[in-house]
Amino acid sequence: MAAHTSQSVAKAAGDESDVARGRSRRTDGPQRAANRGGLKRAFATHWYAWAMIAPVVLVLGIIIGWPLVRGVYLSLTDANERNVARTIGANHIEATYTFVGLDNYTAVLSDPVFWQRLVWTVVWTVACVTVTFALGLALANMLNRDFKGRAFYRMALILPWAVPGFVSVFAWRFLFNRDNGILNKLLDGGGIAAIPWLDDPTWAKLSVITVNVWLGIPFMMVALLGGLQSIPGELYEAAEMDGATTWQRFRHITLPGLRSVSMTVILLSTIWTFNMFPVIFLLTRGGPGDSTEILVTQAFREAFVSSPRDFAGSATWGVLILALLMIFALVYRRALRKQGEVW
Q: Residue ranges of region Disordered (predicted)?
C-alpha cells in the first residue's frame, strides 16, 4: 500500500513537472517574440537617435577599437623595428615577426623594472589625487560663499585649465631651472641655497606632483563647486539653528552631499593621473636617471627610444596598464555599490 502511494505521488509530481515544462515552452516562445517586437518598435521609434550615434560609434571603433585590438595582437608577438613590414625607397619588406603567446607578459611581469615603475606610478597617482581633491574642495568651499571679487577669483583659478598643458609644463620647467629659474632666484634673494628641483630624484618627484596638482585643481574645484551649489541651503540653516558647529555641518551635510560628485571626480582624476604622460615626459623626461618614470612613459620609451624599438614590449606595457585600470574601476564600482551609490 505504501509503495503504491509513493508511486502515485511520484507519477503526480512527474505529471506536474511535464505540465510546467509545457507551460514554459508555450510562454518562452511568445516572450522571445515580444522581446524581438519590442526591439523592432524601439528601433522604429528611435531610429533618428540610432542614426545620430552610429557615426560616433563608427569613429570610436576606428580610433579606439582597432588600435586596441592591434595592440593586444602585437603584445603576443616579437615585433620590433627590425622585423615589422616597412618600405625603404622602392623596396617593400614584409613583416617577419612571429607569434610568441604570453612570453612578453611573463618577461615584463618578472622584470623588477615593471614593479619599480608600478610602485612609483601608484604613489604618484595617490599623492596627486589626494592633494588635488583636498585643495579643490577647500577652494570650492571658499568660492561657494558670497564675497567681493568672487567672479575674478573663479576665473583666475580656472585659468590653468584653459592653458594648453604643454605650455604650462614648459612654464614650470622654466620656473624650476636650477641656474636661471625664478624660484631659485627668489630663494637666493633670501639667502637660501638653490634647490635642484629637476636634478635630484626626490625634488624631481615633488616637482612633477606639484605641477600635476596645479593642472588638476581647476577641474576638481569646478566639479565640487557644482556639487556644493546643489546642496539645499535649508540644511545648513537648520543645522546652524540646532547649534551644529562648522566642522559638524561640513562633516554631516557637505561631505554626504558631495559623495556622488566626489566618487566620479576621484575616479576620473585617478585614470587621468595614472596615464599623465605630458607632465612626466616634458618636465623631467623620466629623470634624473629613471626616478620619475611611470608606466606610460616606460611604454613610450620601449616603442620610440629603445634600440631596437620594441613594439611588442610597448604593446605589452600598454595592455597591462589598461588591465590595471580596469581592475581598479571594477573594484571601485563594487565599493560604490556596497555604499549604496549607483554607478
A: 1-34
Cα–Cα distances in Å, from 166 out to 50, 269, 281, 289, 317? 37, 18, 10, 22, 24
The phi-psi region of residue 91 (left if phi > 0; otherwise alpha if psi is between -120 and 50; otherwise beta) is beta
pLDDT digits (tens, 9 = 90+) for 88-99: 877 888 888 999
In the predicted model, what is the mean pLDDT of residues 158-171?
85
**Nearest-angstrom CA–CA distance, 165 and 204:** 18
Superfamily of domain 111-305 in the CATH hierarchy: MetI-like (1.10.3720.10)
The rounded mean pLDDT for the chain is 84
> Residue 143: its pLDDT value, please?
87
3-state secondary structure 181-234: CHHHHHHHHCCCCCCCCCCCHHHHHHHHHHHHHHHHHHHHHHHHHHHHHCCCHH
pLDDT tens per residue across span 290-315 = 999 999 999 999 999 888 899 999 99
Helix, strand or coil for residue 169? helix
Q: How many CA atoms lie within 13 A of 10 on its CB side?
A: 6
Domain ranges for the chain, please list them.
111-305
Query: What's the whole-model pTM score?
Result: 0.80
Show the cell assigned to 132.
588635488
